[in-house]
Design goal:
The protein is 34% helix and 15% strand. The longest helix is centred in the C-terminal third of the chain and has 27 residues, at 392-418. It has 18 helices and 16 strands. Helix 12 packs across helix 13. It is of the alpha/beta class and 535 residues long. Residues 1-22 form the signal peptide. Keywords: Signal.
């Protein structure tokens, strides 16, 4: 990690202003050299793909902070996707080209001059412990760029390449810290934006970071690290901005480990690989690392590390010190994530439909009751009075209700926790639109269902309502990036969080505020949170 200081210093300057261009089809000069983009799927938008923001993290640079870009000669073609970072292959990433020289990003812009100063939206993809990539079709930024922003989609290291901590790696860092390489990649990408985005008509003073699932967790951690201070003005988290005493926080893409636990997990990982030294780790093919990653997945909590350096404090400690990023925020959850399912799921499963993964509400009643007593302990009886589970159907219905109550109350309390000394705007939502997929009546508005609507990237089976929802969602997001307020002409009014009014904005099936749960249920959840450790 001794490279971090030099890398961050290299990121602190700003390129000299380039002359205006008549057509973004002409080469653009960025750090490293000239690049030539291509027409995006919308002919009004240009896309520059695979732009390196750091050197290839290979050989001796593996398990180190990102290093400065190596310059190139001539004009670099930027019309095709760059490599996405090594990961376990899933259906979501079929067709993507994987390799370690993956610290690159895509830029979508409709600007016609470098003198323009359009707001910038930087997307950090989600996926299992950082799996995924900028070249996934769902993240095409053309539609957002068409509405007047510059969109940046970032690739970063995940899994062991982005999160491995060991005692040896900590010692060699010079800071007694290891494990946050993926987060440092994202800091480096934001510094690249500060230095280069004006060349594409973007305004480095108006950067909004946004992400979903593990990407939302990344946005949360970027809001905690001093290394990202001043690099963004606004933040959007699609899932998982939760109160620091909500145990769900440590079950999702927002979880973390202590340096001690991370190093112990790293030693277990090395035992699985049969190696003892960092030098051996750096010589192994990345495929071997990810074979071991798959084998270790149920043993090791792969995530970022509270290392005392990149992440000096956890959530509650950072908020208490008022040391988190002082930025506007927009955040929310999906109606049927965190274990909930569509209201029609019980009957559909009874008729033979497959149970989707992680569906708490579709557990057999006996298993659900066991979960209730394990989770709520001495408060389980009080929970069951508010959310009774006397039959299988009732257990399903009230489990859904409890999960949805929690995903209203927890983000609202997060906003209370993070804003008492701030005057920044916060907007909270619940997304309720189920995509028209074959399992529509089981999964509902599942985890990740919002992403395609936010990017306004339609599927062939979309109906008029889907297109309307996507237009409104993307407009809210772009308005927020432009002004810090999602409201705008033709959109239902979305009230800001004021610390007093207990309400959430529903986005999807309807666009209106929805009331909070009953006072008795709010009181229960507050007492339950108070009984949990601060995270």
């Amino acid at each position: 990690m001794k490279h971090l200081a030099s890398a961050l210093l290299a990121c602190s300057g700003v390129l000299a202003s380039a002359p205006a261009w008549a057509d973004l089809g002409a080469p653009v000069r960025i750090e490293g050299g000239l690049v030539a983009g291509a027409v995006a799927k919308d002919p009004a938008i240009r896309v520059f793909r695979g732009l390196p923001f750091a050197a290839a993290p290979v050989g001796n640079l593996r398990f180190r902070p990102p290093a400065p870009v190596t310059p190139w000669q001539g004009v670099r073609a930027a019309s095709k996707p760059g490599l996405v970072c090594p990961q376990v292959r899933t259906p979501d990433i079929e067709g993507l080209v994987i390799g370690e020289d993956c610290l690159n990003l895509d830029v979508y812009t409709g600007a016609t001059s470098s003198r323009e100063r359009r707001p910038v939206m930087v997307w950090f993809h989600g996926g299992t412990r950082g799996a995924g990539g900028s070249s996934q079709e769902i993240f095409d930024g053309s539609a957002l760029a068409k509405k007047g922003v510059v969109v940046v989609v970032v690739n970063y290291r995940g899994g062991p390449l982005g999160m491995l901590a060991t005692p040896e790696l900590s010692r060699e860092s010079g800071h007694n810290a290891s494990g946050n390489y993926g987060l440092m990649d994202n800091v480096a990408s934001l510094k690249w934006v500060q230095r280069n985005i004006a060349q594409f008509g973007g305004d480095p003073a108006k950067v909004t970071i946004f992400g979903e699932s593990f990407g939302a967790g990344t946005v949360n951690f970027l809001s905690l690290t001093p290394a990202a201070k001043g690099l963004f003005k606004r933040r959007i988290t699609q899932s998982h901005s939760l109160y620091s005493r909500d145990p769900v926080l440590q079950e999702k893409g927002t979880r973390y480990v202590s340096l001690q636990d991370g190093e112990k997990a790293g030693e277990r990982f090395m035992q699985i690989l049969g190696v003892k030294k960092a030098a051996e780790l750096r010589q192994l093919p990345w495929q071997k690392l990810f074979d071991a990653f798959t084998a270790s997945f149920n043993q090791i909590s792969w995530t970022y590390v509270i290392d005392g350096y990149v992440l000096p404090r956890n959530y509650s400690q950072t908020y208490a010190a008022n040391a988190h990023a002082d930025v506007d925020a927009l955040t929310g959850e999906n109606r049927d994530e965190n274990g909930a399912a569509a209201d029609t799921a019980f009957d559909r499963v009874a008729a033979g439909a497959a149970v989707p993964p992680y569906s708490l509400s579709l557990l057999p009643r006996s298993e659900y009751l066991a979960f209730v007593h394990q989770r709520y302990g001495a408060m389980a009886d009080e929970y069951l009075k508010l959310y009774p589970a006397d039959t299988d159907r009732q257990a399903f219905e009230t489990a859904n209700a409890a999960i949805r109550d929690n995903i209203q109350i927890s983000p609202w309390m997060w906003a209370q926790e993070t804003t008492p000394k701030r005057d920044k705007a916060v907007f909270i939502y619940m997304f309720s639109k189920a995509p028209p997929d074959p399992d529509h009546d089981v999964r509902g508005a599942y985890h990740g269902a919002d992403v395609r609507y936010v990017f306004d990237n339609p599927q062939s089976n979309w109906r008029a309502q889907d297109r309307r929802v996507a237009d409104m969602m993307s407009s809210y997001w772009v308005n927020f990036a432009k002004t810090g307020n999602p409201n705008g002409r033709g959109l239902p009014r979305w009230p800001a969080f004021d610390g007093k009014t207990e309400q959430t904005m529903e986005l999807g099936n309807r666009f209106e505020t929805i009331p909070f749960p009953s006072a008795a249920k709010i009181a229960f959840w507050k007492r339950f949170y108070a009984s949990q450790p601060a995270q």
